[in-house]
């Protein structure tokens, strides 16, 4: 135990140790009562010093759907696995430990989500934890705790408010026709990527004259401007004008589609309404989640199915 206490800054290691040791004690590989006493004492120390992230130097990038990505390249900002957090909550229930401080730490982390990290924080961490808690409540048929209800309310409200965001200004009515590139060549595919990227306002295409002219012919000059940059080879510089509204709008639509899918999956659990109480309808029917009636048909966001699956923890019974 004293040697483990020197590792209190390594939350992930200690959580993995506690849950693994508990599994071993259930299998009869060592004395359960003695193990429970040691683990209970260690649990209180781990919760008191619980860190979700080890903050080191890193930098953020814009996300695919408008400013909500995780980290660019190999990240030095280490976040504990959501499955370990869920296991620690299950361990607390199984051994009679109080998980209130742990859940409160999750709530504080939720309220402090930084701009530019929402997509990763919610979809890769907070939703898997929330789904794990809900699945555990469903399996054990116990009532949710006050701290769990508070976490869920704050997490979902912040998700709808700060990840999805309010609808941006609508682009002109003919925006889809004027910004759709129908050619399927590789250069036009790159042009489409540029149009859909809300973080990119200008892009240079270094091409021969024939290919530059081809691209230029695809571009509606009421939504973009084009100029030739002298270089070797010359570049066609494309700058968004009205198309900026289109990029922001399409990114918001994608976030709404993702959020509605994720929230629909979570709301299928009957006890979610009990956890949210009178905030259930105000969160799940929030104005930020409502798409306009005149929205033209758009393809589903790339990877929508995988995005939803990311929010669901692996189904593995505790202790097995």
Question: Given the C-alpha coordinates, what overall shape results?
Answer: elongated
Query: Which structural category fits the helices and strands?
Result: mainly alpha
Rg, alpha carbons:
24 Å
> What's the SSE pattern?
HHHEEHHHHHHEHEEHHHH
DSSP summary, beta strand count: 5
Mean pLDDT: 82
Distance between the termini: 24 Å
Q: What's the layout of helices and strands?
A:
Elements: H1 2-5, H2 11-26, H3 32-48, E1 53-54, E2 78-79, H4 82-95, H5 100-111, H6 118-140, H7 146-164, H8 175-179, H9 186-196, E3 202-206, H10 209-218, E4 224-229, E5 235-240, H11 243-267, H12 272-276, H13 280-284, H14 304-310
Antiparallel strand pairs: 1-2, 3-5, 4-5
Helix pairs in contact: 2-3, 2-4, 4-6, 5-7, 6-7, 7-11
Description:
With 320 residues, the chain is mainly alpha-helical. The chain is built from 14 helices and 5 strands. Helix content is 54%, strand content 7%.
């Amino acid at each position: 135990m004293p040697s483990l206490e020197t590792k209190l800054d390594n939350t992930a290691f200690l959580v993995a140790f506690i849950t693994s040791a508990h599994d071993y004690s259930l299998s009869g590989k060592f004395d359960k009562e003695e193990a429970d006493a040691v683990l209970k004492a260690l649990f209180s120390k781990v919760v008191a010093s619980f860190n979700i992230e080890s903050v080191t130097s890193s930098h953020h990038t814009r996300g695919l759907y408008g400013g909500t990505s995780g980290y660019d390249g190999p990240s030095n900002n280490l976040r504990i696995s959501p499955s370990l957090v869920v296991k620690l909550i299950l361990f607390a229930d199984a051994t009679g430990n109080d998980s209130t401080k742990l859940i409160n730490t999750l709530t504080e982390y939720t309220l402090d989500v930084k701009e530019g990290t929402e997509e990763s924080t919610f979809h890769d961490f907070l939703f898997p934890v929330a789904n794990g808690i809900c699945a555990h409540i469903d399996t054990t048929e116990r009532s949710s705790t006050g701290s769990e209800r508070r976490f869920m309310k704050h997490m979902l409200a912040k998700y709808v408010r700060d990840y999805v965001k309010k609808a941006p200004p609508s682009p002109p009515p003919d925006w889809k026709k004027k910004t759709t590139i129908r050619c399927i060549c590789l250069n036009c595919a790159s042009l489409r990527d540029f149009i859909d990227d809300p973080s990119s306002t200008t892009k240079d295409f270094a091409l021969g004259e024939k290919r530059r002219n081809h691209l230029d012919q695809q571009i509606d000059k009421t939504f973009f401007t084009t100029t030739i940059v002298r270089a070797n080879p010359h570049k066609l510089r494309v700058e968004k004008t009205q198309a900026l509204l289109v990029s922001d709008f399409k990114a918001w639509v994608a976030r709404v589609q993702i959020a509605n899918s994720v929230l629909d999956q979570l709301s299928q659990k009957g006890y979610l309404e009990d956890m949210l109480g009178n905030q259930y309808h105000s969160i799940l029917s929030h104005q930020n989640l409502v798409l306009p009636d005149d929205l033209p048909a758009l393809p589903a966001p790339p990877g929508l199915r995988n995005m939803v699956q990311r929010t669901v923890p692996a189904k593995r019974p505790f202790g097995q």
